[in-house]
Amino acid sequence: MKIAAMSDLHLGSPSSKYAQFLAFMRTLPPDVTLVLNGDTVDADRRLIAPVHLGVIAEICAESFKRRIVWISGNHDIDFVPAAPNRIEFVPSWSDGGVYFAHGDRLMPAYPLYRLFHLFMKVYRACRAPDTLATMRLARSIPFLLRILKSGTIANATRFARKNGYRTVVCGHLHSVIDKTVHGVRYVNTGSWTEWPAFYLWCEDGNARLVRADQG
Fold first, then answer.
1. Quick one: 183 exposed, middle or buried, by C-beta within 10 A (0-12, 13-18, 19+)?
2. Residues in Cβ contact with 146 at an 8 Å cutoff, skipping those fewer than 6 apart
3. Least C-beta-crowded within 10 Å: which of 27, 70, 172, 209?
């Protein structure tokens, strides 16, 4: 099986690189399964700009041409397009020894992170409705981001090892990562709110990160 997996398109956010994503999707051969690994959508359907709704409609139409697996993330957990067509909506997905999950449920339950997350909920509600503000603030505090990354990688590889997966593929952190821990490979495909964006290409059990602008 051939698989192209990406995460964090965040349709509904002004930061979404939706035009680049459409160009990428249109070049995929029909025998490639497209895995949308969480946070494909960033907002309530009523708040999404028409151009972004058009992207969602094209993704739905694409499901008649190829297999599309839509994994839920923390921003789009309850989102279903008006006409989903043949899209498969799942909380996680696997192919052979490769496990795909958005990654929000693999975050460490550190008291500091919980406090930070609570602060950001209040901050966004009062001053910054942009849901990407959390990640931007986390990036401005490098030691916090390092803690979140290391804890998530540890949790993800532990889960994969326990369940017999050799590779675990996530998004959520908006950081491109490819790291092996105790024989288990952790891959994060980053986000499509920045450019260049990345995706994971899997073919015959082999996986590699690819820059979308280099194909």
1. exposed
2. none
3. 27
pLDDT tens digits for range 29-62: 999 999 999 999 987 667 799 999 999 999 999 9
Preceding peptide of 196 cis, ω within 30°: yes
As a whole number of angstroms, the distance between CA 57 and CA 85 comes to 10
For the stretch 52-87, what's the b/e string if a residue is b when 16 or more beta carbons lie within 10 angstroms of its beta carbon?
bbebbeebbebbeebbbbbbbbebbeebebeeeeeb
Q: What is the pLDDT of residues 109-143, one digit of tens each?
A: 655 556 666 665 665 566 555 666 666 666 666 77
Question: For the purposes of burial, counting CB atoms within 10 Å of the CB of 22, is it exposed (0-12), middle (13-18) or buried (19 or more)?
Answer: middle
Question: Collapsing DSSP states into helix, strand and coil, what is residue 35?
Answer: strand
Question: Rounded CA gap, 154 and 171, in Å?
Answer: 15
- Bridge-based pairing of strands 184-189 and 167-170 is parallel
Q: Assign 57 to helix, strand or coil.
A: helix
β-strand partners of 180: 185
Place of tokens 């708040």: 47
CB atoms within 10 A of CB 195: 10
SS3 for 201? strand
Cβ atoms < 10 Å from Cβ of 207: 21
The pLDDT confidence band at residue 165, using thresholds 50, 70 and 90, is: very high
Kindly report the pTM of this predicted structure.
0.90
